[in-house]
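F.,

This is the one I mentioned.
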């Protein structure tokens, strides 16, 4: 079997912060909802302290922790990271942005309106009305030329463009100016329901019109931008990117004069907050991957007969386990003077993946039995309640719990009586209890777990105990973030695997690769793509394809629900919970926290009056 190479950005999304921690930066596909002035709120996947703009004073600076100075601000390049996306949303347009429930709505700073031809009318044409005030930082208006160049770069038609190919760009047939320079008409060669996800971020034609322009790193201030901020300093060696107010910005003026994005390793962020060297710092990895404190050195207890065999020796206490170290780190974060810890479940779905191409799980009947044996509420409690979050289990492979249309489809996996399903699959439990057997072989499964994550360990421990009660022996195997994908998931030498996928705003196109039926390449080897469970059906593929092309929202949701039901019935994987996110914010900072599906409204982030 062969697995396609993944970009570093894809790996960062796959090994989510709560389970692997490749990146502790905000996910670029999330946004806060409005809230009453100066009110703390936990709603949807976000937890942001939002203040009315009149309650935020102008001026000052904010110091914001990132994993590192990104190699590029072009989120479509292979070297892009979550930090690339965070900065890009302060600098570049997104025609739509998600609300707190993952619904894409027009951003009025860039878009006066947009509409698609009604369902059933061919071809599909989307008409955009650009904000006539929207300009690039050199004063050039944003026009159809920028959309045209980006479509050419991302459609996959020209292999000279080195980068990703987001879904939907290949469905575009033509882009043209409409009735005036502010109207853009996009004609699709086939219906594409999730068209609102396109052109976000949007880059100037000068950066995407040719392969040479697109492929070069997008870094310092010599490049055009069209956000509330521009780059005023880009120091990779010094670990800092500085943004300043965009003098050509036409929308609400940014409250903060200067935002300094400072490269800060997760393990040092609480010290930096405590010493007033940071104002905003994602803390998920700092807590989840806290290292146990070193044990004190052993010392001899004085006695009247030194050196004799009965001399007692003080033994060093064993270091705490990862969950205990994480609990200590969380208590420290919550006790930092002048710092508020924001927490929420993120827009990312943690699941238990069942490898159908390895060992006894090749039997669909056994996969369904195991699926029903997992107590998802117990697992979610173990993972989330130690972080002060409700242990809410997931019942959908495709939608997060607060997305429109979410429905628990787990009953589709069959009867809740897992013991009967195991028996029917031929795996019997001895009368004395213990591990189930079939043909004199014990039901022992390996569980691949990201190393160094307290959340992953709590989850794995709960899964081991849970399945053990059903007569399934689980042996956890840890793997580092560096090897988890290419050397472990790709190799497929495991039975179960624990990791997360992002819950995007376009589930039909974004989730399809995770569940697509693996197919043989020209040389006959099986290409599993992103489907690490290695199970799929033609029916599931067709349901995703129909959903991607269905312009009626209710009908599209119905197709997604049907696809989710079939995925449950396949025994592909078990959704467990949404990953946790923690962000430390200095008291007095408004508009910062956990952003859920979206990203900060940078012009509103600042210091309260």
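My design for it:
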């Amino acid at each position: 079997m062969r697995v396609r190479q993944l970009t570093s950005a894809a790996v960062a999304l796959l090994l989510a912060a709560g389970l692997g921690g490749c990146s502790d930066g905000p996910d670029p596909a999330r946004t806060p909802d409005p809230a009453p002035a100066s009110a703390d709120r936990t709603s949807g996947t976000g937890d942001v302290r939002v203040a009315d703009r009149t309650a935020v004073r102008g001026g000052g600076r904010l110091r914001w922790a990132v994993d590192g100075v990104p190699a590029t601000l072009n989120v479509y390049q292979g070297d892009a990271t979550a930090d690339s996306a965070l900065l890009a949303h302060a600098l570049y347009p997104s025609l739509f942005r998600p609300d707190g429930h993952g619904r894409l709505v027009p951003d009025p700073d860039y878009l006066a309106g947009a509409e698609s031809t009604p369902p059933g009318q061919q071809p599909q044409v989307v008409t955009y009305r650009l904000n006539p005030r929207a300009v690039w930082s050199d004063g050039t208006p944003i026009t159809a030329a920028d959309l045209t160049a980006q479509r050419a770069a991302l459609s996959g038609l020209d292999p000279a463009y080195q980068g990703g190919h987001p879904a939907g760009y290949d469905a575009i047939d033509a882009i043209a100016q409409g009735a005036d320079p502010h109207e853009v008409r996009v004609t699709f060669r086939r219906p594409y329901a999730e068209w609102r996800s396109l052109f976000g971020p949007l880059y100037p034609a000068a950066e995407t019109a040719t392969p040479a322009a697109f492929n070069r790193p997008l870094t310092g201030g010599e490049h055009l931008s069209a956000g509330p901020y521009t780059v005023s300093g880009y120091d990779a060696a010094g670990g800092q990117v500085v943004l300043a107010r965009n003098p050509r910005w036409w929308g609400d003026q940014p409250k903060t004069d200067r935002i300094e994005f400072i490269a800060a390793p997760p393990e040092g962020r609480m010290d930096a907050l405590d010493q007033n060297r940071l104002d905003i710092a994602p803390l998920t990895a700092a807590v989840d991957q806290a290292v146990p404190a070193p044990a004190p050195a052993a010392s001899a207890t004085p006695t009247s007969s030194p050196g004799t065999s009965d001399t007692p020796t003080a033994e060093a206490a064993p270091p705490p386990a990862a969950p205990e170290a994480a609990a200590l780190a969380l208590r420290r974060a919550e006790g930092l003077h002048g710092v508020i810890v924001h927490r929420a479940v993120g827009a990312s779905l943690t699941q238990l993946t069942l490898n159908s191409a390895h060992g006894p799980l090749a039997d669909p009947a056994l996969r369904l039995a195991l699926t029903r044996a997992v107590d998802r509420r117990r697992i979610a409690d173990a993972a989330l309640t130690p972080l002060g979050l409700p242990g809410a289990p997931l019942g959908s492979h495709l939608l997060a719990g607060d997305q429109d249309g979410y429905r628990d489809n787990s009953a589709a996996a069959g009867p809740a009586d897992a013991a009967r399903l195991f028996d029917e699959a031929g795996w019997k439990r001895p009368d004395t209890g213990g591990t189930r057997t079939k043909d004199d072989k014990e039901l022992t499964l390996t569980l691949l777990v990201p190393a160094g994550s307290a959340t992953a360990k709590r989850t794995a421990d709960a899964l081991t105990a849970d399945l053990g009660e059903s007569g399934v022996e689980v042996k956890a195997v840890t793997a580092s973030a560096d090897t988890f994908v290419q050397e472990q998931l790709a190799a497929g030498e495991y039975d179960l695997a624990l990791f997360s996928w992002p819950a995007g705003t376009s589930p039909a196109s974004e989730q399809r690769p995770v569940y697509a039926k693996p197919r043989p390449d020209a040389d006959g080897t099986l290409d599993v793509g992103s489907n690490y469970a290695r199970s799929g059906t033609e029916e599931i593929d067709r349901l995703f394809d129909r959903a991607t092309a269905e312009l009626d929202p209710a009908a599209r949701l119905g197709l997604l629900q049907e696809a989710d039901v079939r995925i449950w019935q396949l025994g592909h994987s078990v959704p467990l919970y949404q990953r946790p996110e923690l962000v430390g914010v200095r008291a007095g900072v408004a508009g910062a926290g956990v952003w859920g599906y979206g990203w900060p409204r940078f012009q509103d982030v600042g210091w309260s009056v």
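The first helix runs from residue 8 to 14.

Talk soon.
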